[in-house]
UniProtKB/TrEMBL annotation:
Alphabetic keyword roster: Decarboxylase, Lyase, Pyridoxal phosphate
Entry cofactors: pyridoxal 5'-phosphate
Disordered, as annotated region: 1-22
Domain of life: Eukaryota
Coiled coil: none
Family statement drawn from the similarity comment of this UniProt entry: Belongs to the group II decarboxylase family.
Any one Gene Ontology molecular-function term assigned to this protein's record: carboxy-lyase activity
GO cellular component, one term: cytoplasm
Descriptive protein name: Tyrosine decarboxylase
Amino acid sequence: MAPPSYISYNGGDNQNGGAALAPKNSSGGLLLDPEQLRRQGHQVIDFIADYYSRMADYPVHPSVRPGFLRKKLPASAPLRPEEPAADDAFATALRDVRDLILPGMTHWQSPRHFAHFPASSSTVGALGEALTAGINVVPFTWAASPAATELEMVVVDWLGKALQLPESLLFCGGGGGTLLGTSCEAILCALVAARDRKLADVGAGRLGDLVVYCSDQTHFAFRKAAHIAGIRRDRCRAIPTYRDTMFALSPADLRAAMKADVDAGLVPLFLCATVGTTQTTAVDPIRELCAVVAAEAQHGGVWVHVDAAYAGAALVCPEFRRAIDGAEAVDSFSMNAHKWLLANNDCCALWVRSPPLLVAALGTEPEYILKASAAADDDGHDGDVVDYKDWSVMLTRRFRALKLWLVLRCYGVEGLRDHVRAHVRMAELLESFVKGDARFEMTAERTFALVCFRLRPPERLGGEKAANDLNRRLLEDVNATAAGPYMSSAKVAGVYMLRCAIGSTLTEERHVREAWKVVQERAASLLRKMEKVTAAA
């Protein structure tokens, strides 16, 4: 089919004999020029490489106040490029990134960033992002980009097998997966599918009776997703957890909560179990929780979703597979490959045992523009065509599969295992430091690469409030240390603790040792000050 006559092409006349009408920038150059892309692309790669080589020059967390950057930038965008030549304008903008923006950033790739679960980066992951942006397709249906859709189907099965997930969650086993942006999006998709299945059984008028379950350690993304899905806030049961069970969700307490709701005439809908909670990396017992849920078989049963946003990456190592024992019974599973598997932001994988339930809840009406070009099999059917627009909330989608495919190809499963195990070994080292210093104690059992600890207060001060105040001051002092580590805190069961999450691609053992030295020095200084105050009282 010939293109419309008004479309023109660079370097030649259009079909009506007119001059080329390709869009130009204000200086007369093409807006998408291969040679300019080559030149400026080299500048960007050099810029990023220099950034990583100078990472140690930046404090992990900046000392800035709200509004600092807005004061330095114009209130309106320029009407014309700031430099007459396009390359000069781009170089000027890159200088501002270096001089204005980077000094005000929290440097998540710093080897001294221990505050959050990692936003892991790699050379291949970064270049995969660049390649994806350059190709810039929108694979919302198979027809819109066949290779992109099928690569996503292949790569989610690759990843699922690498994580040792049950085959029932993979395309090869009758399930299937997709790549999304965040865990919140993945949970929302599963929750909407569960909601619609349940309402088809009990009636749409009972939306207000639906109840969802989690622990008090479950990430707030679940409660946010439940609210978006129309679940009443007072129908979200956050079941308390306890230190003596490592803050894992108790099957007995879940059973009691569900029974109370059924007795009250409510309808249990959804359980969100977590493998690796944000606060302490607690692991909910999936097999036992699924057994509780199985007893609630009326009205289609209760949907079980496993949120393994952080710790799911550890499943590439066989020694961690026990964390999801019993996962054969779950309905869906999600994890963030961008947290610990070198895939760069963003890349959340969601697998479901019954894809038709997702499509039934999230699918759109067939439209000519979406379906007309889809290939059919010999019988005239679409066969195994997947239209990923029907698997998620978003219609416009990114080609995330390309980046993840490159990461898996270039590093291999063994390379990913080495990456995870290196961080676990560093966490074990830090754990040994904490246990070897009588002034400190572990506040939660270390399971993966997060170490939770606190400084013990002098006995004569006593009390949790004194301990919490002391550790709050300790964290402030540690994070205020020039060129020191950046850590975070959690307060679980009334205990304020320091969190050291080891996972940056650039972190080495020496950075962990240096971080612990800073913690010890700051702790010693605090204790000396307390001794002086006590002596003077």
